[in-house]
Amino acid sequence: MNPSPSSTLSPKDSSTASRDLFDQSALSDLAQRLVEAARRAGADAADAVAVRGVSQGVEVRDGRVEESERSEGDDVGLRVLVGRRQAVVSTNDTSGDAVTKLAERAVAMARVAPDDKYVGLADPALLARDFPDLDLLDPDVPATSELERRALEAEAAALGVKGVTKSGGASASAGMGGMVLVTSTGFHGSYLRSSQGISATAIVGDGTGMERDYDFTSAPHGVDLLSPEIVGRSAGERTVARFNPRKVETCKVPVVFDPRVAGSLVGHVVGAINGASIARKTSFLKDKLGQQLFAKNIRIIDDPLRKRGLRSQTFDAEGVAVKKIALIDEGVLTTWLLDCATARELGLTTTGHAHRGVSSSPSPGPYNLHLEPGTPTPAELISDIKQGFYVTDLIGSGVNGVTGDYSRGASGFWIENGELTYPVSEVTIAGHLFEIFKSMQPANNLEFRYGVNAPTVRIEGLTLGGR
């Protein structure tokens, strides 16, 4: 059993309300009662998830608080199996005999559901038994006054950048989320993770000549956040740099992705190797397992066990043990992302990538993703580019996961003789993901700031659609 964090943490805020937030024992008891009620109602197998969410946030504009809100709630979901039939129900009402009624309703629904030969709980041999401390919960919960301070400081820093004409607002937030999972096969696990963030948006110009940009920071622990001043100043500097953008002629040039957007390329890889897409044969990579898709120096890692990771956890939504894995290793596609159902459909074993909410059955998804860095600096990566494009923002989602065709709106800066020169907007970058993967060159500036992280990345020969 995975001990609740409340058994090992002593929150600095000793108020009863705060302690209650860290205590998952009531949620654990509720999930256990749901599973037991489902078995009494006639289920052959069952699992229950109880999800906790607590958040507070402050938004400011022009030196004043525009909005301050707090939300808090616990929700539970029950999945039952009767033979090869499955049903999922959820509620936030657990008063009186609600647990018994919910279980009875779920079993009744499962009995009239269609057969699905792939459903079922995880093999007990695959269930997690070790639960390392990933340091995901910050016991120092910031007060609303502290969130206001952070947001106001970020906005003031953005407005202090020469050229910024007005604020697009700033915000600060803090929250906590967690899950308890109980299965009829004996698994009982839980985790809690906190999250804190600061963001700022700045504006330069007015009317049709207006430009805006932003920056933000997020982390499970407050001490790992960038300072409000750094966030605000970065937002302001990014915005000023974008002022008076030009359009460029349609051409085919090297395109370099800023780290803020380079992670999207990793996302396209991972979306295409999701087991659900592979089982439906709707992925352009469906026949590429074990093949060389990238240069030999390319590795894409999924690491659910990274300490203080934004998406870290010690077990998946079916209780299966998780592990660090190279999805792309020396350029070769090594695996699909699988939960138990998609693994059975493909004749494979789950990779421990099941995710779920209280009202849905498990489905595959990634954890902490990153593209490993290369050896050149960002400056070296662009030094030999005579004419090219440096992307800082992407617009839209024009990527076809079935064919691999890639086309997205973008803005950024023109590269000339190895240097960033003037801002560019209203262009489209297009190509095919196979060609993008083959020519990918990462720089050495990887930082872990997001759920998907990548260094600066260079791609050869994309078509830039301009005027």
What amount of the residues lies in strands?
25-35%
Uncertain segments are 1-17
Mean pLDDT: 93
Overall form:
globular
Which percent range fits the helix content? 10-25%
Kindly provide the radius of gyration, computed on alpha-carbon positions and rounded to a whole number of angstroms. 24 Å
**Helix and strand element order:** HHEEEHHEEEHEHHEEEHEEEHEEEHEEE
Given the helix and strand composition, which structural class is it? Answer: alpha+beta
User: How many distinct helices?
Assistant: 10
Measured between the Cα atoms of the first and last residue, the distance is 61 Å
Widest β-sheet, arrangement of strands: 3-2-1-4-5-6
The main pleated sheet reads as:
6 strands, antiparallel
Could you tell me the number of beta strands?
19
Task: Give an overview in words.
The protein is of the alpha+beta class and 467 residues long. Helices cover 23% and strands 34% of the residues. The protein contains 10 helices and 19 strands. The strands form 4 sheets. Strands 3-2-1-4-5-6 form a 6-stranded antiparallel beta sheet. Helix 2 crosses helix 3 and helix 4 packs parallel to helix 5. The longest helix is centred in the first third of the chain and has 16 residues. The termini are far apart. The N terminus is likely disordered.
